[in-house]
Design a protein that fits this description.
Length: 255
């Protein structure tokens, strides 16, 4: 079954295609051949700007969870033999404080459909029954529908393709390294210990590794998706890193 043939899906992709084409035409006098790439960047910035209130809520939630860490540790000790009771007590504690253990998920979930739409628009040559002119647009001579893995596997990876994706992947990986350092003890995004005798799960090495690995995983995803989607990922990971630093100063976990 072709999901693109479903009227709701086709309508969404067609609307996204027309919006990107319209923005591309507006940017052509300034960006020239890179107008479509610039359009993707602007769309990314617009999406992230719209999600700023969600990011603020996430930062507040992280501060609340850090403050609750000693009480969560006490609950774990009290209900260590009763998982169901521990779950109920944990959820009740979060409800009492007006937050949720999943407060960090909305920004990621909200962006997933956008990444999917950008991916679909730059993969399919036909959208809603008409040709996809976006596939003819390039960034530094590389079509925006090009994927690194597909090009290498198909033997069509040119020097330009390898160079552009090398810069793209390096840019995303750089955020991963900056994040790894920032969440390490003493870093700008480090989670403070909960205090004597109370381990803060947010400050554990497992949580730090998971956060850093997520950024490096994004670099791997950028090798598979079309260049346009990779641009979206590049801009959004840098935005996320910068926003986290700004909000951490505004809402310190030990404040």
């Amino acid at each position: 079954m072709d999901l693109l043939a479903l009227p709701p899906v086709a309508a969404v992709l067609d609307a996204a295609y027309r919006a990107l084409m319209g923005l591309t035409h507006l940017l052509e006098p300034l960006a020239g051949a890179g107008a479509a790439a610039a359009a993707v960047v602007l769309v990314t910035l617009a999406v992230r700007a719209a999600l700023i209130p969600v990011g603020v809520a996430q930062a507040k939630g992280e501060r609340t969870r850090a403050r609750l860490a000693p009480r969560l540790a006490a609950l774990q000790r009290r209900h260590r033999d009763d998982h169901a009771a521990l779950q109920r007590a944990t959820l009740a504690l979060y409800a009492e404080e007006g937050t949720s253990p999943f407060a960090g998920c909305p920004p990621v979930l909200a962006q997933a459909p956008v990444v999917g739409i950008v991916y679909a628009v730059f993969v399919h040559p036909v959208i809603a029954g008409h040709g996809n002119d976006l596939l003819g647009h390039t960034l530094l001579g590389v079509p925006l529908g090009t994927g690194l893995v597909g090009s290498v596997a198909g033997g069509t990876a040119s020097v330009a393709v390898l160079a552009v994706f090398a810069v793209l992947v390096a840019g995303i990986a750089a955020v991963g390294e900056l994040t790894r350092r920032a969440v390490a003890p003493g870093g700008a995004l480090a989670v403070p210990a909960a205090g004597a005798g109370a381990a803060n799960p947010l400050a554990g090495p497992g949580a730090r590794r998971a956060l850093g690995a997520l950024q490096f995983l994004t670099a791997g995803v950028a090798c598979v998706v079309p260049l346009a989607a990779g641009l979206y990922l590049l801009v959004t990971v840098w935005w996320t890193y910068a926003q986290r630093r700004v909000l951490r100063r505004r809402f310190p976990l030990d404040g």
